[in-house]
Amino acid sequence: MPWRPRNCEIMAEKPKLYYFDGRGKMESIRWLFAAAGVECEEEFLETREQYEKLLQDGSLLFQQVPMVEMDGMKMVQTRAILSYIAGKYNLYGKDLKERALIDTYVEGTTDLMGFILLFPFLSPEDKEKQLAVIVEKATKRYFPVYEKILKDHGQEFLVGNQFSWADVQLIEAILMVEEKSSSVLAEFPQLQAFKARICNIPTIKKFLEPGSLRKPVPDDKYVETVRRVLQMYYNVKAT
Prior knowledge:
With 239 residues, the protein is an alpha+beta fold. The protein has helices spanning 26-35, 48-56, 78-88, 96-117, 124-153, 165-180, 189-199, 202-207, 220-230, and strands spanning 16-19, 41-44, 67-70, 73-76. The chain has a four-stranded mixed beta sheet, with helices on one face. Helix 1 packs across helix 6 (165-180) and helix 6 crosses helix 7. The chain starts with 15 loop residues before the first strand and ends in a 9-residue tail after the last helix.
């Protein structure tokens, strides 16, 4: 039976996302909400004053964004937010063993995506070095793991033959790396088939279409806004 999002409950208000008008750490949250078929509202941080108001209101527990307002909570810390969404919308496995596997696979894709998240903030020279790092890490350390998992169990999804948070974050990671190197899946037939399957899931397919909350590749305007709002006066270095 094909996976369907568990979104039958009536929500009084849509989740509200507080972040910049760009990807960053909020993008994985947008992906997971989209996979679950949940519509969200967004408030973009464009000025230092907006950020300071959130601080003064006590909305940012550790003085950081992203922040998600839902179910009467103001949630911070990306991992905590993602775990809550995955559990709420049946994307977190059926038992503790499956949850542990999902956590493991998610940690791997998080590490890989970390190399890409800082990319827009690098100098042109460091970007060239970082691109080589991204491709090397993807093809030698991370993608071989997921290729083997899919080949060994012969199922459509990473865990329990059920669509989960692990699948959502892997497809996000694949597409992020492909934006940097279009041929990165050339040696990974299982991941090529996985990509085709996941991108054809209705909620994912909708998220990949124009008009969704998915953000484009970060540009100079995004970088400038983040630096201004967070007062980032230092230069980020390549990994």
